[in-house]
Write a structure and sequence with these properties.
The complex is a heterodimer. Chain A is α/β, with parallel strands linked by helices. Chain A has six helices and eight strands; from the N terminus they run βββαβαβαααβαββ. Helices cover 33% and strands 21% of the residues of chain A. Chain A has a five-stranded parallel beta sheet. Chain A has a three-stranded antiparallel beta sheet with strand order 2-1-4, covered by helices on one side. In chain A, α3 packs parallel to α5. By secondary structure, chain B is of the alpha+beta class. Chain B has helices at residues 2-7, 12-47, 63-67, 76-84, 147-161, 168-173, 207-217, 238-246, 253-297, 299-308, 312-352, 360-390, and strands at 54-59, 88-93, 95-96, 101-106, 111-114, 118-119, 140-146, 175-182, 185-197, 227-232, 249-251. In chain B, the strands form three sheets. A five-stranded mixed beta sheet of chain B has the order 5-4-8-9-7. In chain B, α2 (12-47) packs antiparallel against α9. Classes of the chains: A alpha/beta, B alpha+beta. The interface between A and B is medium-sized, with 20 and 13 residues.
Amino acid sequence: MHVRVQNIKPKYMSESEISGSDIYLQNQIVFEKRKKYLLKANSGHGKSSILNFIYDCNKNYTGKIIFEGNEDDSIISVRIKKLSYVFQDFKLFPKLTLWENIKIKNNLTNFKTDQEILNLIDKLGLSEKKDQLVETLSLGQKQRTAIIRSLCQPFDFLLLDEPFSHLDERNIEILTTIIDKELEDQNAGFIMTTLNNEYLFKYDKILNL
Amino acid sequence: MIWKLQKKTLLPLQIFGYGITLCIGITIALITLTIYTDLKPILQSESNVFNDNAVIVNKKISILSNINKDKIYFTEEELRDFEDQDFVKEIAKFNKATNFKIFLSSDIFNIGSELFFESIPDKYLDIESDDWKWEKGSDFVPIMMPEDYLKLYNLGFAESQGMPLLSEKVISKAKFDVHLSGSNKRQSFKGGIVGFSSKINSILVPEEFLNWANKEFGNHKENNPSRILVEFTNPNDERIIEFLKEHNYEVNKEKMEKNKLIFFFKMAFVFVFVIAVIIILLSITLILLSINLIFQKNREVLINLYFLGYQIKQISYYYKLLISIVTLFSIFISLMLTLMIRRMYSEKLVSYFDFEMSNTFIYTNVMIISVLLLILLNILIERKIRNLILR
């Protein structure tokens, strides 16, 4: 699946705010499968917005977003099979444990075995926190949990909204390795927004917002 | 996992409150319906006679009436006045045989007696009989007697004079000779008693027959009634008693009271049933408000589930299932309570009346209530979640 974005403009931003953007108000931008995109901008320039528009959890825009090859699928089906999203605010359930937060996604997709999930938790140093309520975790731990959860489904694109903002370099390194491997296994690409961390992956395209 | 998450969003006390209120409302509604259905045949047999709210009205017989018999008849003016009262729905005149002789005799019983006939419109009769008809040229005249006459004979006359007791069936089989004479003509008919009226204190024949006989044997004088049947819009209207008193009219008070009682009885049923329906509606409102509160408080959880890829049907399933179970459980408890109470009062009723103990209609009611409630609640819950997530 490719994601074709046409003439997109957030309704809540003026034209002057997004002038010079590589995406907003461009006739056509195509995010191709298997490729890695970095979206760069300062805060308040609509980085999260463009990911939310693509994920269809924010409809406050003009223009058109087309999932090429999956035009007739419902957004739910696209979310389960084609798009995975690491939200900036994680969207975890505070009253569930770390393990339950991951399982609630995997139960829907049955994509990974419990053992595979446990391995990921272990690699990211969260084994001891596995049965702890998410509301008691630190931001960094929550961020790692959210990333593991996003990998528990098939996808063509992984949407990453400032995914490493609360992590130390060691964890970032481990995660880049895990994500790279997952992309390779799934033959997928990603669209990532960031304030810095440009050196982490080998990007196919860097777009300024 | 999603259930575990959603379980944490619940407000147990409010859902418990819903269950209790619904249970109370449905129990009251079911018991009211059940008692009403059980007592309906009894009520109907008591009240059906004169279209529920009708009584027989006549003028009081005073010393003066002895001298001037016309005083016992209703004049056209008085009838019109009666009809014009807004608490009166309809009046029907008693038609009577005027100025010709009626003689009834029976060879079998070896009796003979002079008699009078009256008639009223068929719709006011409390007895239904296929024989109740007469056409010109027909030889058989059906007769309706007051039940009290038979009682008087059996319990008074027969008892004291050593005569045989007669049942309604025996009398119905007997045939009499009916001789009419007047205007220098005479004619005989066969007569038979086709029913005993418990309400109309008169010897009745079909209206067609009496009209014909009056024309044939009577003296064609104006036929003013001495008794009329009055149907009230509401027998409880205070103006009725006042009006009757003012005009010196008489009614069978016992019947009037009975009708009043039945009227009150029915009103009480309606009242209690309406209260029950209000309680049920309140319980539904309560659960909808609680659900709304739960959804608003946990809006983020529900939306996050949707973003994770859960469908609205999957998200609302837990709430729908839970509310459906609570609803069904409450209805089940109501059903058990109703059956228990019914068993208690039916033991008493059986000793008074022929009482048919069938629970089918209760089950039907419960089924209808359950299905309607479940459909309503399930639709509303899913719609609420959909609106909340997609708005």
